[in-house]
Amino acid sequence: MNVETLTRPDNTAEKKTQEVVFPFPEEAAQEKLSVEDVPVIMEIKNIDKSYSGSSKVLKDISFDIRKGEVLSIIGPSGAGKSTLLRIINRMIEPNSGVIRFQDKDTLNMKGKALRHMRTDIGMIFQHYNLVDRLSVFENVLHGRLGYKSSLQGIFSMYSEAEKEKAVEIISELGISEQIYSRCDELSGGQKQRVGIARALIQDPKIILCDEPIASLDPNSSRIIMEYLRRISREKDITIIVNLHQLDVAKQYSDRIIGLNDGSIVFNDVPEAITAESINHIYGSNLEELIVE
């Protein structure tokens, strides 16, 4: 495909608020992965995190992450969900503990090794973290910056293969008509698909999703979760997603981890969640439990 032959659609602005319902087979949406049958890709052991002058945000967190699974992390606000994701990709540092990713200790990585590790772990944010003044195409290509030198990044020096890959992923996510639209012209659901595309172009082994549907309406939320599940199944990419919506977590997850006050209080398949386990996860914060 010749990227230069693509042109901006004249009616992009008129269509910017439209959402296309993702044609996802119901039986595939309900398919569950037997996590015991797949290899461990990351081990998290005894992670503690506290900030100066505060109590521990995370307390002795230990669990394994398996290749290609959809793992949801649920819990009330302040439980430590976002902190945990940011520790996994080294955006912040824990006070103690070990993280082994593909048999390598990530917490001791520096320089080139750390940059390489981060290309294997994509991230999607609640508020998208896009450059609004740039196009969808340019924002997606930013996912390749981890492979570039500083000079290549400054001058946006991307190969034709990278540009073609960006076009392919944008098409897969159903936003081809917006490819040259500025990101501030998009709806929330479209912006989140740009975030997914930017993560995918990294060729990651894991994608971390920090509250990816918290700002979206129910239909857009369904579209995003179905894309994430399809990515895990078709591309064998592990998806780790923080959620407030328990029913969404139960529908789309292979496994759920419940956090309360910085500790893991549940780690099992969705079918194992009971009223008692919900109470352990949310405690006195049951009013935060969102069921759509």
TrEMBL record:
<keyword id="KW-0472">Membrane</keyword>
<keyword id="KW-1003">Cell membrane</keyword>
<dbReference type="GO" id="GO:0016887">
    <property type="term" value="F:ATP hydrolysis activity"/>
</dbReference>
<dbReference type="InterPro" id="IPR012693">
    <property type="entry name" value="ABC_transpr_PhnC"/>
</dbReference>
<keyword id="KW-0067">ATP-binding</keyword>
<dbReference type="InterPro" id="IPR050086">
    <property type="entry name" value="MetN_ABC_transporter-like"/>
</dbReference>
<keyword id="KW-1278">Translocase</keyword>
<dbReference type="Pfam" id="PF00005">
    <property type="entry name" value="ABC_tran"/>
</dbReference>
<dbReference type="GO" id="GO:0015416">
    <property type="term" value="F:ABC-type phosphonate transporter activity"/>
</dbReference>
<dbReference type="InterPro" id="IPR017871">
    <property type="entry name" value="ABC_transporter-like_CS"/>
</dbReference>
<protein>
    <submittedName>
        <fullName>Phosphonate ABC transporter ATP-binding protein</fullName>
    </submittedName>
</protein>
<dbReference type="GO" id="GO:0005524">
    <property type="term" value="F:ATP binding"/>
</dbReference>
<dbReference type="InterPro" id="IPR003593">
    <property type="entry name" value="AAA+_ATPase"/>
</dbReference>
<dbReference type="GO" id="GO:0016020">
    <property type="term" value="C:membrane"/>
</dbReference>
<feature type="domain" description="ABC transporter">
    <location>
        <begin position="42"/>
        <end position="286"/>
    </location>
</feature>
<keyword id="KW-0547">Nucleotide-binding</keyword>
<keyword id="KW-0813">Transport</keyword>
<dbReference type="InterPro" id="IPR027417">
    <property type="entry name" value="P-loop_NTPase"/>
</dbReference>
<dbReference type="InterPro" id="IPR003439">
    <property type="entry name" value="ABC_transporter-like_ATP-bd"/>
</dbReference>
<keyword id="KW-0918">Phosphonate transport</keyword>
